[in-house]
Amino acid sequence: MGEGDPEYLEPLGEKMSAARALKERKLLIEYEISFDQTGLRETAFFFPASAVHEANLKTIEAYLPKATALQNAKIRLARYEALWTTGWSAIVPPLLILTLGLAIRWALLGFRPRIAG
Fold first, then answer.
1. 53 partner at 20 to 30 Å CA-CA among 4, 11, 101, 114?
2. pLDDT tens profile 31-82
3. Distances, alpha carbon 29 to alpha carbons 3, 16, 65, 79, in Å
């Protein structure tokens, strides 16, 4: 894990659990990075315990722009999904109620088509 791009591990994923187990056995060391923009953005980097600290920091520094871009993309997607869901839940129920009301009115009028004029 100390060469190239670090692998992004989901906080509650199986890989994260496995990495933390290896950390407890002193086979890996973990660096947790919190992004400045919001406390919600956090990522963890795992390196072999034998790796040199300065090399790990250089790898993390080189990867931070990519990690920031990945986090920004995830946040944009979550916002889009929230707006989409909110939009549908704000528009569809009133349209259903309007349609049901028009159907009831049409039934009460004896199913006669309305003729303009």
1. 11
2. 777 665 555 556 677 788 787 888 888 887 887 788 778 778 888 898 999 9
3. 14, 13, 22, 33
How many Å apart are CA 57 and CA 88, to the nearest integer?
45
Whether the full predicted model's pTM is greater than 0.85, yes or no, is no
Nearest to 23 by CA among 3, 54, 45: 45
Sign of CA dihedral 103, 108, 110, 114: negative
Give the tens place of pLDDT for each residue, 90-105: 999 999 999 999 999 9
d(CA 78, CA 60): 25
